[in-house]
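In this supplementary section we document a worked example of the pipeline. Step one takes a protein sequence of length 221 as its only input; no multiple sequence alignment statistics are reported here. Step two produces a three-dimensional model, which step three serialises into C-alpha coordinates for compact storage. The input and output of this example are shown verbatim.
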Amino acid sequence: MAEAQLNAELRDQVGHTGPKELRSSGRVPGVFYTGGEECIPFHVGEVELNRVLHSDVNIINLMFPKQDARKCIFREVQRDPVTDAVIHVDLFGIKLTEKVSLTIPIILTGAPSGVKEGGILEHLLREVEVEGLPLEIPEHLEVDVSELMIGDVVTLESIPTRDKFKFITEIHHAVANVIQPKIVEEVVEEEVEEGEEVEGEGEAEEKGEGEGEKAKAEQES
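The serialised model returned by step three reads:
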Protein backbone atom coordinates (compact mmCIF):
# COMPACT_ATOMS: atom_id res chain seq x y z
CA MET A 1 0.00 0.00 0.00
CA ALA A 2 1.37 3.40 -1.00
CA GLU A 3 1.83 6.22 1.46
CA ALA A 4 1.77 10.00 1.14
CA GLN A 5 3.07 12.81 3.29
CA LEU A 6 0.73 15.56 4.42
CA ASN A 7 2.27 18.61 6.10
CA ALA A 8 0.11 20.14 8.82
CA GLU A 9 0.24 22.84 11.44
CA LEU A 10 -1.29 22.72 14.89
CA ARG A 11 -4.49 24.70 15.26
CA ASP A 12 -5.13 26.77 18.39
CA GLN A 13 -8.58 28.08 17.47
CA VAL A 14 -11.24 25.36 17.54
CA GLY A 15 -14.34 27.58 17.40
CA HIS A 16 -16.38 28.62 14.36
CA THR A 17 -14.38 31.78 13.69
CA GLY A 18 -11.06 29.95 13.33
CA PRO A 19 -12.15 27.50 10.58
CA LYS A 20 -13.73 30.31 8.53
CA GLU A 21 -10.56 32.34 8.59
CA LEU A 22 -8.52 29.28 7.69
CA ARG A 23 -10.66 28.37 4.69
CA SER A 24 -10.58 31.94 3.39
CA SER A 25 -6.77 31.76 3.38
CA GLY A 26 -6.60 28.45 1.51
CA ARG A 27 -6.24 26.20 4.56
CA VAL A 28 -8.51 23.33 5.61
CA PRO A 29 -9.14 22.56 9.30
CA GLY A 30 -9.10 19.02 10.62
CA VAL A 31 -8.56 16.78 13.64
CA PHE A 32 -6.27 13.84 14.25
CA TYR A 33 -7.40 11.23 16.75
CA THR A 34 -6.71 7.66 17.79
CA GLY A 35 -7.95 5.33 20.48
CA GLY A 36 -7.30 6.53 24.02
CA GLU A 37 -5.63 9.80 23.04
CA GLU A 38 -6.82 13.38 22.93
CA CYS A 39 -7.81 14.83 19.55
CA ILE A 40 -5.26 17.10 17.92
CA PRO A 41 -6.71 19.99 15.89
CA PHE A 42 -4.67 21.01 12.85
CA HIS A 43 -4.91 22.70 9.46
CA VAL A 44 -3.43 21.81 6.07
CA GLY A 45 -3.04 23.50 2.71
CA GLU A 46 -6.07 22.97 0.46
CA VAL A 47 -3.97 22.30 -2.65
CA GLU A 48 -1.79 19.71 -0.92
CA LEU A 49 -4.81 18.04 0.67
CA ASN A 50 -6.61 17.72 -2.66
CA ARG A 51 -3.49 16.22 -4.21
CA VAL A 52 -3.46 13.48 -1.57
CA LEU A 53 -7.21 12.91 -1.78
CA HIS A 54 -7.06 12.39 -5.56
CA SER A 55 -4.13 9.97 -5.37
CA ASP A 56 -4.31 6.20 -4.85
CA VAL A 57 -2.62 6.27 -1.44
CA ASN A 58 -4.40 4.94 1.63
CA ILE A 59 -1.91 5.65 4.42
CA ILE A 60 -1.09 9.25 5.33
CA ASN A 61 2.09 10.32 7.09
CA LEU A 62 0.85 13.39 8.94
CA MET A 63 3.78 15.71 9.60
CA PHE A 64 3.70 18.34 12.35
CA PRO A 65 6.65 20.75 12.74
CA LYS A 66 9.50 19.19 14.78
CA GLN A 67 7.52 15.97 15.39
CA ASP A 68 7.67 12.43 14.07
CA ALA A 69 5.25 11.40 11.37
CA ARG A 70 1.90 10.04 12.52
CA LYS A 71 0.52 7.28 10.32
CA CYS A 72 -3.20 7.67 9.75
CA ILE A 73 -6.07 7.20 7.33
CA PHE A 74 -8.93 9.43 6.23
CA ARG A 75 -11.90 8.69 8.45
CA GLU A 76 -14.20 11.48 7.23
CA VAL A 77 -14.00 14.19 4.59
CA GLN A 78 -16.64 16.92 4.82
CA ARG A 79 -17.45 18.90 1.68
CA ASP A 80 -19.43 22.02 0.94
CA PRO A 81 -22.81 20.92 -0.52
CA VAL A 82 -22.71 23.66 -3.15
CA THR A 83 -19.05 23.98 -4.21
CA ASP A 84 -17.93 20.43 -3.24
CA ALA A 85 -14.82 21.99 -1.69
CA VAL A 86 -13.32 20.19 1.32
CA ILE A 87 -14.20 22.09 4.50
CA HIS A 88 -12.98 19.65 7.18
CA VAL A 89 -11.10 16.34 7.50
CA ASP A 90 -10.86 13.70 10.22
CA LEU A 91 -7.68 11.61 10.29
CA PHE A 92 -7.53 8.42 12.35
CA GLY A 93 -4.19 7.22 13.70
CA ILE A 94 -3.26 3.61 12.92
CA LYS A 95 -0.61 1.02 13.77
CA LEU A 96 0.87 -1.16 11.04
CA THR A 97 0.40 -4.24 13.24
CA GLU A 98 -3.34 -3.67 13.76
CA LYS A 99 -6.11 -4.32 11.24
CA VAL A 100 -8.08 -1.41 9.80
CA SER A 101 -11.13 -1.08 7.56
CA LEU A 102 -10.75 0.95 4.38
CA THR A 103 -12.76 1.70 1.26
CA ILE A 104 -10.76 1.15 -1.92
CA PRO A 105 -11.73 1.70 -5.58
CA ILE A 106 -12.44 -1.15 -8.01
CA ILE A 107 -10.81 -1.00 -11.45
CA LEU A 108 -11.95 -3.23 -14.31
CA THR A 109 -9.29 -4.61 -16.66
CA GLY A 110 -9.52 -6.39 -19.99
CA ALA A 111 -12.01 -6.23 -22.89
CA PRO A 112 -14.98 -8.58 -22.29
CA SER A 113 -15.64 -11.18 -24.99
CA GLY A 114 -19.33 -10.35 -24.72
CA VAL A 115 -18.70 -6.71 -25.65
CA LYS A 116 -16.97 -7.84 -28.85
CA GLU A 117 -20.22 -9.63 -29.73
CA GLY A 118 -22.32 -6.51 -29.20
CA GLY A 119 -22.94 -6.63 -25.45
CA ILE A 120 -22.60 -3.74 -23.01
CA LEU A 121 -20.31 -3.83 -19.97
CA GLU A 122 -21.85 -2.47 -16.75
CA HIS A 123 -19.57 -1.44 -13.87
CA LEU A 124 -21.95 -1.98 -10.96
CA LEU A 125 -19.67 -1.67 -7.91
CA ARG A 126 -16.98 1.02 -8.05
CA GLU A 127 -15.56 0.75 -4.52
CA VAL A 128 -15.48 -1.84 -1.78
CA GLU A 129 -14.87 -1.83 1.97
CA VAL A 130 -12.14 -4.21 3.14
CA GLU A 131 -10.38 -5.11 6.38
CA GLY A 132 -6.77 -6.11 6.93
CA LEU A 133 -3.32 -4.97 7.99
CA PRO A 134 -2.55 -1.52 6.51
CA LEU A 135 0.39 -2.67 4.41
CA GLU A 136 -1.50 -5.68 3.01
CA ILE A 137 -4.48 -3.73 1.68
CA PRO A 138 -3.96 -2.69 -1.98
CA GLU A 139 -4.43 0.88 -3.23
CA HIS A 140 -7.18 -0.44 -5.51
CA LEU A 141 -8.75 -3.75 -6.49
CA GLU A 142 -8.28 -4.92 -10.09
CA VAL A 143 -10.95 -7.20 -11.57
CA ASP A 144 -10.32 -8.94 -14.91
CA VAL A 145 -13.52 -9.00 -16.99
CA SER A 146 -12.03 -10.23 -20.28
CA GLU A 147 -13.78 -13.63 -20.04
CA LEU A 148 -17.27 -12.24 -19.49
CA MET A 149 -19.83 -13.19 -22.15
CA ILE A 150 -23.28 -11.68 -22.62
CA GLY A 151 -25.30 -12.56 -19.52
CA ASP A 152 -22.25 -13.25 -17.35
CA VAL A 153 -21.66 -11.48 -14.03
CA VAL A 154 -18.68 -11.29 -11.66
CA THR A 155 -19.20 -10.90 -7.89
CA LEU A 156 -16.88 -10.12 -4.99
CA GLU A 157 -17.04 -13.78 -4.00
CA SER A 158 -15.11 -14.79 -7.13
CA ILE A 159 -12.25 -12.33 -6.55
CA PRO A 160 -9.18 -13.84 -4.86
CA THR A 161 -7.68 -11.96 -1.91
CA ARG A 162 -4.96 -14.50 -0.96
CA ASP A 163 -6.21 -14.18 2.63
CA LYS A 164 -4.36 -10.86 2.99
CA PHE A 165 -7.61 -8.99 3.60
CA LYS A 166 -11.31 -9.70 3.70
CA PHE A 167 -14.36 -7.99 2.23
CA ILE A 168 -16.69 -6.18 4.58
CA THR A 169 -19.04 -5.40 1.72
CA GLU A 170 -21.46 -8.28 1.00
CA ILE A 171 -19.47 -10.83 -1.05
CA HIS A 172 -22.47 -11.71 -3.26
CA HIS A 173 -22.60 -8.12 -4.50
CA ALA A 174 -22.24 -7.91 -8.30
CA VAL A 175 -19.15 -6.02 -9.46
CA ALA A 176 -19.73 -6.05 -13.23
CA ASN A 177 -21.77 -7.80 -15.91
CA VAL A 178 -22.31 -7.82 -19.67
CA ILE A 179 -25.84 -7.27 -20.90
CA GLN A 180 -27.62 -7.42 -24.24
CA PRO A 181 -28.20 -3.93 -25.70
CA LYS A 182 -31.73 -2.79 -24.86
CA ILE A 183 -32.02 -0.75 -28.05
CA VAL A 184 -32.03 -3.96 -30.13
CA GLU A 185 -34.99 -5.32 -28.18
CA GLU A 186 -36.89 -2.03 -28.54
CA VAL A 187 -36.37 -1.97 -32.32
CA VAL A 188 -37.64 -5.54 -32.63
CA GLU A 189 -40.72 -4.72 -30.56
CA GLU A 190 -41.46 -1.65 -32.69
CA GLU A 191 -41.15 -3.68 -35.90
CA VAL A 192 -43.56 -6.30 -34.54
CA GLU A 193 -46.11 -3.66 -33.55
CA GLU A 194 -45.92 -1.97 -36.95
CA GLY A 195 -46.34 -5.34 -38.70
CA GLU A 196 -49.43 -6.12 -36.65
CA GLU A 197 -50.95 -2.74 -37.48
CA VAL A 198 -50.35 -3.15 -41.22
CA GLU A 199 -51.78 -6.67 -41.14
CA GLY A 200 -54.87 -5.45 -39.29
CA GLU A 201 -55.42 -2.66 -41.82
CA GLY A 202 -55.17 -5.15 -44.72
CA GLU A 203 -57.78 -7.44 -43.20
CA ALA A 204 -60.11 -4.49 -42.66
CA GLU A 205 -59.73 -3.34 -46.26
CA GLU A 206 -60.39 -6.85 -47.62
CA LYS A 207 -63.45 -7.19 -45.40
CA GLY A 208 -64.79 -3.81 -46.53
CA GLU A 209 -64.33 -4.63 -50.21
CA GLY A 210 -66.07 -7.97 -49.76
CA GLU A 211 -69.10 -6.43 -48.07
CA GLY A 212 -69.34 -3.76 -50.78
CA GLU A 213 -69.39 -6.33 -53.63
CA LYS A 214 -72.03 -8.39 -51.79
CA ALA A 215 -74.30 -5.35 -51.39
CA LYS A 216 -73.93 -4.45 -55.08
CA ALA A 217 -74.88 -7.97 -56.16
CA GLU A 218 -78.03 -7.89 -54.04
CA GLN A 219 -79.16 -4.60 -55.60
CA GLU A 220 -78.71 -5.92 -59.15
CA SER A 221 -80.76 -9.01 -58.35
